[in-house]
Specification:
Blueprint: E1 8-12, E2 17-21, E3 25-30, E4 38-40, E5 51-56, E6 62-67, E7 74-80, E8 83-90, E9 99-118, H1 121-124, E10 129-133, E11 136-141, E12 144-151, E13 157-158, E14 163-170, E15 174-183, H2 194-209, H3 219-231, E16 233-234, E17 239-240, E18 263-264, H4 268-278, H5 281-295, E19 305-306, E20 317-318, E21 332-333, H6 344-359, H7 367-381, H8 400-419, H9 427-444, E22 446-447, E23 452-453, H10 469-472, H11 480-492, E24 494-495, E25 498-499, E26 518-519, H12 520-532, H13 536-546, E27 559-561, E28 566-568, H14 574-588
Antiparallel strand pairs: 1-2, 2-3, 3-4, 3-5, 5-9, 6-7, 7-8, 8-9, 9-14, 9-15, 10-11, 11-12, 12-15, 13-14, 16-17, 18-19, 20-21, 22-23, 24-25, 26-27, 27-28
């Protein structure tokens, strides 16, 4: 049986991340980067596919966990009949090699501990050769090498292709374990001091959290979401992954299992807005620069997602040796949606650069030329159908959101020239495009009988993405068509008080069998739209409900099942946390005023 998704905690070093279960087992870790092969893959199989357990030997031990202050350092206090211990898990920001540090500290009495390290490289498939080297255990297979040492040294032994140990910790005693990865053909990296690493890691995170400008209601939730967004950043390039996991299901036992360890252009606008508004301009500039590099090239070749460094080829492959989370197969790595045509990304890119300009981020000399080239391409192609924001694997359609984002692209280009006359461009032509798109969407994408914008031209289905209309400025919040759309989406896409992104009853829309949970970012969009349409009390009521959904550590997955009361999809999900941050700023501003 797999633990609920919300039972996991996140630790990371801004290049990769691990998921630590409530039971003290690290069940997911890709090394050396987010998109590398996992060496612990129990999350998507069973413990034979790799994990690292560190917990009291007492099966009735009771854990209480929390992050230390504004950091990504996880403390778990275990209570047993014989005493209590604290286990501190973290990954220090690396110098060269990635490290996972686990420190056991005795608090009261004497507590017997157990540790099981089962390394399985290549997503749980490859069993390494393990041997003693001095005071360490070293595991090697192919390109991967992992070293385990303890301080003070703890006797280990092999059993069932795993490394095990048992030791007792008394009050005031500490035992630190450090796991270090490096390429097997290179020398072992320098040994770190686990306690100095803890001090510097806490210092780094606390300094970063202190920069948060938000001081309104629910500050702890907003800050934790910002910390999570930072944790999903690949520091060397500035790219931000959608999630650190792959194939956590949108429906238990279903096939909607995707790899989210890449950087989506669709997230760019909302991510930049969140970072800039919260005061994190350095991170916003790094993300903007990543976006600029990724978007460079032939505008016709613009993709919806890229690798951590802007890589373009992300072939989708299935891993048949993994049984899937809760039997949800196939387990996939890579993402075939990379080859889809999603015209909304052009608007997203231009809106991102607009946000960067308004925020005063230092401009890049070639950025405007790239934006003009993207808009020139979109001007010729916005009338074509596409797969849309939600990456449907059904037929292409004229998705309303994609058309609205074409309007956004033209609108932001017009505003750029109006605010900075030194920028070159045919602003008259762009205004004409903006007007034409607006007119067509209002004619073909609006159902006057039901007073709502629809998912696509000629369709009677709805789409939660239309909740973004007032935020994007396509129409004001008090426009009756916007109010009607908000009401229709809330009525027809509601499930347990939350919102689905679209109806999955008509499988012809996304070409996939099965169902999915409510989409958390869409529920945040609804709260924001309620606020923008003049219903602040309803908005706050929904926002308060949504703030009950994160786990005990403030983390959100992609989706939520309101019937089973559990999280679904990849975890933690940047889009969900971006939704929380953006809605809080819309409703309360930086200082908490309504």
């Amino acid at each position: 049986m797999h633990a609920p998704i919300e039972d996991y905690a996140l630790i990371g070093d801004l290049q990769t991340a691990a998921l630590v279960g409530r039971d003290g087992s690290v069940d997911w870790l890709c090394l050396p980067h987010f998109d590398s092969a996992a060496c612990f893959a129990a999350l998507l199989g069973d413990r034979e596919n790799g994990h690292w357990l560190l917990a009291p030997a007492d099966p009735d031990a009771r854990p209480e966990r929390s992050y230390r202050g504004g950091s990504l350092v996880l403390d778990t206090v275990w209570h047993t009949d014989s005493g209590s211990v604290k286990v501190t898990d973290f990954m220090p920001q690396r110098d060269r090699a990635p490290d996972v540090v686990r420190i056991v500290e005795g608090l009261e009495g004497d507590v017997a501990m157990q540790a099981v390290l089962r390394l399985r490289f290549d997503y749980g498939l490859v069993v390494p050769w393990v041997r003693h080297v001095g005071d360490c255990r070293v595991a090697v297979a192919g390109p991967d090498s992992v070293w385990l040492r303890t301080e003070p040294e703890v006797k280990t032994y092999g059993q069932g292709f795993s490394t095990r140990s048992e030791f007792t910790v008394a009050a005031g005693e500490r035992v630190a374990s450090v796991l270090t990865w490096h390429p097997s053909h290179e020398p072992r990296p320098a040994v770190i001091d686990p306690y100095e690493a803890l001090r510097s890691t806490l210092e780094d995170w606390e300094a970063w959290s202190a920069r948060c400008r938000y001081d309104g209601p629910h500050r702890a939730a907003v800050l934790r979401s910002l910390i999570t967004l930072k944790a999903l950043t690949f520091a060397p390039t500035g790219g931000i992954v959608a999630a650190p996991t792959t194939s956590l299901p949108e429906e238990l036992g279903g096939v909607r299992n995707w790899d989210y360890r890449f950087c989506w252009l669709r997230d760019a606008t909302l991510t930049l807005n969140s970072l800039v508004t919260a005061g994190y301009t350095e991170e916003a500039a790094a993300w903007r620069d990543w976006l600029l590099r990724a978007a460079a090239g032939n505008p016709a070749d613009l993709q919806i997602m890229y690798g951590l460094g802007g890589e373009r080829r992300l072939p989708e492959t299935e891993l048949p040796w993994l049984g899937g989370y809760a039997g949800s197969t196939p387990v996939r790595i890579g993402n075939a949606a990379v080859d889809q045509r999603q015209l909304d990304v052009y608007g997203g890119v231009l809106d991102s650069f607009h946000i960067a300009r308004v925020a005063g981020l230092p401009s890049k000399p070639h950025a405007w030329n790239i934006q003009r080239a993207l808009l020139d391409f979109l001007e010729c192609h916005w009338r074509e159908p596409d797969e849309g924001l939600w990456e449907v694997r059904g037929p292409r359609r004229h998705f309303v959101h994609s058309k609205i984002m074409a309007w956004v692209a033209a609108d932001r280009a017009v505003k750029a020239v109006e605010s900075r006359p030194e920028l070159e461009g045919d602003v008259g032509r762009w205004r004409a495009m903006r007007d034409e798109v607006h007119r067509e969407v209002c004619e073909k994408g609006y159902d006057a009988e039901r007073n709502t914008f629809t998912q696509s031209y000629g369709s009677d289905l709805l789409d939660a993405a239309t909740l973004l209309i007032p935020r994007l400025g396509f129409l004001p919040g008090d426009d009756p068509r916007v109010v009607g759309t908000v009401d229709a989406v809330r009525r027809e896409l509601a499930h347990g008080g939350l919102i689905r992104r679209y109806s999955t009853d008509a499988t012809t829309v996304d070409g996939l069998p099965g169902d999915e949970g409510t989409f958390l970012v869409c529920s945040f969009w609804l709260a924001e739209a309620l606020h923008l349409t003049g219903r602040p009390e309803e908005a706050r009521e929904l926002f308060d409900r949504l703030l009950e959904l994160p786990n005990d550590l403030g983390l959100l997955a992609e989706e939520y099942d309101p019937v089973a009361g559990r999280q679904l999809g990849n975890f933690p999900q940047a889009f969900s946390h971006i939704g929380l941050i953006g809605t809080a700023f819309t409703m309360f501003g930086c200082g908490g005023a309504d």
